[in-house]
Amino acid sequence: MSYEYLKFGKEEKDFIAKIEEISGQNIYSCYQCGKCSAGCAFSDKMDRTVSQLIHLIQIGQKEKVLKANTQWVCSSCLTCSVRCPREIDVAALMEAVREYCLREDYEKVIISEISKEALDKLPNIALVSNFRKKTG
Amino acid sequence: MVQYSYFPGCNLKTNAKGFEETAIAVSKKLDAELVEMPNWNCCGTVHTLTSDNIMKRIAPIRVLSRSRKHIETLEESQNQIVTLCSMCNSTLKIVNNEVKKDQEILDKINYQLEEDEETYETDMEVKHFLEILRDIIGYEKISEKVVNPLEGLKISPYYGCMLLHPEEAKIDDEEMPDVLESLVESLGAELVMSPLFKFCCGSFHIVDQEDIVASQVEKIVEAAKRRGANALVVACPLCAYNIDQQQEAMAKNSVVKSPIPVFYFTQLMAIAMGEPVKINHFNDHFINPEPLLKELGLIGRKKAK
What we know:
CATH architecture of the largest domain in chain B: 3-Layer(aba) Sandwich
Distance between the termini of chain B: 30 Å
Largest sheet of chain B: 4 strands, parallel
Order of helices and strands of chain A: HHHHHHHHH
Number of domains of chain A: 2
CATH superfamily of the largest domain in chain A: Alpha-helical ferredoxin
Shape of chain A: globular
Shape of chain B: globular
CATH architecture of the largest domain in chain A: Orthogonal Bundle
CATH topology of the largest domain in chain A: Fumarate Reductase Iron-sulfur Protein, Chain B, domain 2
Helix content of chain B: 40-55%
Oligomer: heterodimer
Largest interface: A-B, 39 and 43 residues
Number of helices of chain A: 9
Strand content of chain B: 5-15%
Distance between the termini of chain A: 42 Å
Structural class of chain A: mainly alpha
Strand order of the largest sheet of chain B: 2-1-3-4
Helix content of chain A: 40-55%
Strand content of chain A: under 5%
Radius of gyration of chain B: 19 Å
Largest sheet of chain A: none
Radius of gyration of chain A: 16 Å
Number of strands of chain A: 0
CATH class of the largest domain in chain A: Mainly Alpha
């Protein structure tokens, strides 16, 4: 069996503090019961489930967190937030990870690359909500 | 007649015109008229879940402040703003709750609104039209107005996320709601329960990750059809668009056979109350509900005298 040694220095602590600041949640409230992942409508499309991502945040693994697709598959339906036994706003944590990326000058959706037909076809409710979630 | 200040939101004027026109028509019939507020802006559709972003909270507060002014001009109106779209409902409700609790945020937002000579004093209440139907009008009065019971329609309610989440904005119990169920029954239709009544449709991923929406919609529709539903009822223009449009796309690729139409709850009410068919704007739908309604004899029948 091989072990992976985790670094837990200033960078990791800063990352955790930033996520907690943006979301307003205490990341260590989570005791990893997995109820959020079990009830998530999108778990099958995530490379790390919601509770796994929370665990990675707890141990400050910034790179792995930002590489996961979890936060970009989450659609903020808030099922996890209303069910969490520790009353964590889980969706707010996903939003915080998204915002962390977007605030570092990163765009998930580049509006100029969306085709004209798509822009004509899609309802404005879809476009506005998408851009609010996926552009900085 | 009681009047309500009504906030349409972006979609009710574009691809959900049928939702708005039927709602206004039935609201007049039920003596609770929806009057559109002047000079409204988009509420932002999704509420920001961040704790520190004030900018994304300004738009909903501006809506509330303008609605407050609008109420002065209405008859027998209480301080209530009514929405039809479930996303507007949740966005407005959440921000309204936040500023009621936190004076500091309210002060900052009011400082921004000063430029437009607006100010908000936390004296508004946000209501979804379904809440008005349930709590103020009541199902009894609705069924009294039914002249064309929806016999033969087997309807599965699909709530989507924003009617039931989060805690501060929900209009009914988040795990066992019954508002759409009771409404469907009071219109004389058969009720079909589906376990995926709040299984998210994929929402805004339709713009850049359509495959996610397709997979969600397939599950939602299959679950309803397997239990015998021949139509879905929704309250959210985005759910309606996603389910409707994706079903059509999948029918073309023959992933889904026999797609089922998606109705807004007010369209069902308008049909049951004998309103003209054209206000439903069925031509905006991808899966046209008219063939089903004609087959069941609910529209296009000459009235017996």
